[in-house]
Specification:
The complex is a heterodimer of chains A (219) and B (125).
Chain A lengths: L6 E3 L3 H25 L3 H6 L3 H25 L1 H12 L3 H9 L20 H26 L6 H31 L6 H6 L3 E3 H7 L1 H10 L1
Helix pairs in contact in A: 1-3, 3-4, 3-6, 6-7, 9-10
Chain B lengths: L2 E2 L7 H49 L9 H11 L9 H7 L7 H9 L2 H10 L1
The chains are: A mainly alpha (219), B mainly alpha (125).
Chain lengths: 219, 125
């Protein structure tokens, strides 16, 4: 057994709340979006028909935008630390990507380089989610509020970007869910984001070695 | 049990990265909004020019009201409502008006029927 004992508060209350709100909105947006894009009657009927499904989609989009905005407004320090972590790309991150963190069964791994609070894969996911959400918001609102004002070609561009970004985001979130909640090597992360925010210090010392060293120094 | 947690403060680098991300997002949103509003303004300008052109063309026309067009009144007097100018007769409805939506299949079936004998019969009557 490792000599590292104790617990690490990895995700604070506000971060977990924002993650929950964003997740629930994302599920609503994805389900309603799939429903009326492919005209799947039973999905639309869950929300009371096509028109109501569209209404749920639009207002979930508003919460999808306002949620992170409020989080950043009231927790700028956390957001700044998050941005700093995901934008700090070092040779350890490239080393992690080279072996894919040891998550793929066909890549033989002897040593996984030490990682920050977020590993290289999570950093990439962070950027893709940010860019994806920005694209969804930037294309979604003109489709709703400016549809009678903008030329058809601009609206068509918005529809195409919105659709393909949604497909990529759904696949990414699916992969994120698999790694965070199902994969035996990393599912310990699940409770830290979805429940109490804590994770065993031993796990952090192993998976997020560089970050844990900083925590020990601060302690 | 030992509890570890991050300190609440941020470094100057973290502040600039956080602010930078917000700034970049605001700039991208601004650029996208500008494209949208410019496109909307261009669209409005085009629509206004088109409206002006339509009114100008209309003002230049000698005959500006279809019900005062002598050719139309003649068609009504001689064929659509013999002896008078009476709109919305069964014949004028059928020949001059179009159909929409659920009426289309019936119209297609009607158009498939041979027309010349039917027209001759109608004319004879």
């Amino acid at each position: 057994m490792s000599d590292v004992q104790g617990k690490v508060l990895k995700h604070g209350d506000s971060t977990r709340t924002m993650h929950w709100v964003h997740l629930l909105c994302f599920i609503l947006l994805a389900v309603t979006g799939i429903g009326f894009y492919w005209d799947i009657g039973f999905i639309e009927n869950i929300f009371g028909g096509g028109a109501k499904s569209s209404l749920v989609h639009r207002w979930a989009g508003v919460v999808f935008l306002v949620g992170p905005f409020l989080y950043i407004f009231f927790n700028f320090n956390r957001f700044a630390r998050f941005m700093d972590t995901i934008s700090r790309i070092t040779k350890d991150d490239f080393g992690w990507l080279k072996v894919m963190g040891g998550y793929l069964p066909f890549i033989k791994v002897e040593h996984v380089p030490p990682q920050d609070k977020y590993n290289a894969g999570q950093k990439m996911l962070g950027w893709l989610i940010i860019i994806g959400c920005l694209l969804m918001i930037l294309t979604g609102f003109p489709m709703w509020l400016m549809r009678d004002m903008v030329p058809a070609v601009f609206l068509s561009l918005c529809y195409n970007v919105h659709f393909w970004t949604a497909i990529i985001l759904i696949l990414l979130v699916g992969g994120h869910f698999f790694l965070a909640a199902i994969h035996p090597k990393s599912r310990v992360e699940f409770s830290s984001m979805m429940l109490d925010g804590y994770i065993d210090a031993e796990i952090s010392a192993h998976h997020n070695e560089k970050w844990f060293k900083e925590l020990k120094q601060d302690a | 049990m030992t509890l570890f947690s991050e300190s609440g403060g941020i470094t100057r680098r973290q502040f600039f990265k956080g602010s930078g991300m917000l700034l970049v997002s605001a700039v991208i949103t601004g650029i996208f909004a500008k494209i949208g509003f410019d496109a909307s303004a261009a669209s409005d300008e085009y629509i206004n020019k088109r409206i002006a052109a339509m009114y100008t063309l209309d003002e230049k026309m000698t005959l500006r009201k279809s019900h005062l067009n002598p050719e139309i009144t003649q068609i009504y007097k001689e064929f659509l409502s013999p002896g008078e100018v009476k709109p919305l007769t069964e014949k004028s409805e059928r020949l001059l008006h179009t159909k929409y939506g659920k009426e289309i299949p019936a119209l297609i079936e009607e158009l498939k029927k041979p027309h010349v004998p039917a027209a001759n019969a109608e004319h004879a009557a």
